[in-house]
Design goal:
With 72 residues, the protein is an all-alpha fold. It has 3 helices and no strands.
Length: 72
């Protein structure tokens, strides 16, 4: 995370279109890949992906409804 934040600061401080900007953006990408934000997903377990689905249209609908009822 520290490397990502340092790279983002380098992007902020670099001049647009400069070699420093290109290097900083490359460092941001490398850090994001290392953190698992980009690149091949390491968490792929073959389960269906319910990201970007309304919870009512997923197998979690009943759990979520129960959770909402339990809240004050």
């Amino acid at each position: 995370m520290a490397q990502l934040m340092a790279a983002r600061r380098a992007v902020r401080d670099a001049t647009a279109g400069s070699r420093e900007m290109a290097d900083a953006r490359g460092r941001v990408n490398d850090a994001k890949v290392a953190l698992g934000e980009r690149g091949t997903p390491w968490w792929n377990d073959g389960a269906p992906d319910y990201n970007r689905h309304l919870v009512r249209n997923t197998p979690y609908a009943e759990w979520y409804a129960d959770l909402q009822e339990a809240l004050p």
